[in-house]
Design a protein that fits this description.
This protein is of the alpha/beta class. It is built from seven helices and 17 strands.
Length: 245
């Protein structure tokens, strides 16, 4: 996999190249010190992946992406965490804070290897349409509060109009995503659409009880008192087939 590093700090480029020596599957073929140089080298060399800084003299990393005809996979590398939400709204595989930690870099490379990513461009913005697995880490923002949370730690998604409430630990932030859009991106082996309003993490189910009208009642782990979610009669048939009950 061919990669280009785009960062205005020479020491940052050097350090990242050094870290990437532990990943022979990634070949750094070039580097650039600003967005204009980055655009030129991407269009000339067609890399599979770019490591992209955000705050650079002249154009930002986001400005650069908006000008590309073809967008490779993008791993952002930046010293600023306030751009994380926007990074995940565009064509971003991961978001690494400087100084880049070897473990986080390894996670990003692993995600690159195991996840098939498909990007579509709509009205000038890049939307990540990849399937998310339970090992993926997602960015959640609600007002001024932000979290990086593993999908395996999310026990429940609940529809609230055009929003979805995300349940993990004691937190229940709202995100601007419909349940249908979430269902398309979540791995069906881990996340199950229990009814019109809820998607549950199958690994977070603590108890299963028969319920009204041939349905089921699921009790989830991870909160006190635990959430109890009804499985519709139609989805109960699918649930039993999946769980071999």
């Amino acid at each position: 996999m061919k990669a280009i590093i785009i960062d205005d700090e020479r020491l940052a480029r050097t350090e990242l190249k050094k870290l990437l020596q532990d990943f022979p599957e990634v070949e750094v073929i070039d580097e650039a010190a600003n967005a204009e140089e980055g655009i030129s080298k991407i269009e000339a060399q067609h890399p599979d992946l770019i490591f992209l800084d955000i705050q650079m003299p002249g154009k930002t990393g986001f400005d650069m992406l908006s000008q590309l005809e073809r967008t490779p996979q993008v791993i952002f590398t930046t010293a600023y965490d306030e751009f994380a939400l926007k990074a995940f709204e565009v064509n971003a595989l991961d978001y690494l804070l400087k100084p880049v930690e070897p473990k986080r870099l390894a996670d990003a490379i692993q995600k690159l290897q195991t996840t098939e990513h498909k990007e579509i461009r709509t009205e000038g913005e890049y939307i990540n349409n990849s399937l998310l697995t339970e090992n993926d880490q997602v960015f959640v923002k609600d007002g001024e509060r932000c979290w990086f949370v593993k999908l395996s730690e999310i026990r429940l998604f609940e529809s609230v109009g055009n929003y979805a409430k995300v349940f993990f630990g004691p937190n229940k932030p709202l995100i601007l995503k419909s349940l249908n859009a979430l269902e398309e991106r979540l791995d069906a082996k881990t996340f199950f659409r229990a009814n019109r309003k809820h998607i549950v993490n199958l690994r977070m189910i603590d108890k299963i009880e028969p319920y009204f009208n041939g349905g089921l009642l699921l009790e989830l782990k991870g909160s006190n008192p635990p959430e109890k979610i009804e499985v519709s009669r139609r989805q109960t048939v699918k649930f039993k087939e999946m769980m071999s009950l």
